[in-house]
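TL;DR need structure tokens for one chain.
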Amino acid sequence: MPKPSTFPILIDELKNIGIPFLTKHGYLKPNESKYGTISWERYGKKTGSISILVNTESEAPRIFFNYKCNETLIKYEVQLVSVPSNLGRGLVWYFICPITGKRCRKLYLANTYFQHRSAFSGAMYQKQTCSKKDRYYSLMFSTIFKSEQIYEQIYSKNFKKTYSGKPTKRYLKLLQQL
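>> reply
TL;DR here they are.
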């Protein structure tokens, strides 16, 4: 008799908020408070949005979430912590997961709250759900599809083939791979 299917939560498909995204958009500047909205899209359709307020002015920096999940308004906060960089330049920011208390750089939306990936049991990445045979086939056929990916990179919108009349290192590397 076959094993019953478990239909695990796929971490790759969950909405998430990461420290690199917040840093890139200027939310994590020291001694500032910034308000904004984050939206997610899938296949060109908006799948969700969230309002956030990041406050790094106080002794205990926090990020405040405000969103609707299953027609229920949810408001809560997550503690932020900063550690001096090992390079001696600036700070490295982390979330403190409200469920597990772990320090992390990315929070995932599952079960109505943003939390660390270890907070929900049975969650897997997409690659972990593939059989050994599927992994073998994807490895074998990846060489065929790799050339397509290289062409997509070369002919993408903002790809620079030359700089000051000379081909770029990235362009030469992609040509070598072809």
